[in-house]
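Regression test case RT-17, inverse folding.

Input:
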């Protein structure tokens, strides 16, 4: 799996998610578990922030 070169153009409170199936990327402040496009698993590419 390729390593993302950039931490994504997300705002501070958002994390980057990538679909393992179609490669679609989304920024969201909430956890995304399934791709809105194909329904496959979304991987969190951002480092989770400690609460
Ligand atoms: Zn997808």
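Golden output:
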């Amino acid at each position: 799996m390729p390593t993302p070169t950039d931490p994504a153009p997300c705002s501070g409170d958002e994390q980057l998610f990538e679909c393992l199936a179609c490669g679609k990327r989304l920024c969201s402040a909430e956890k995304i578990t399934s791709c809105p496009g194909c329904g496959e698993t979304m991987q969190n590419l951002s480092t989770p922030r400690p609460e």
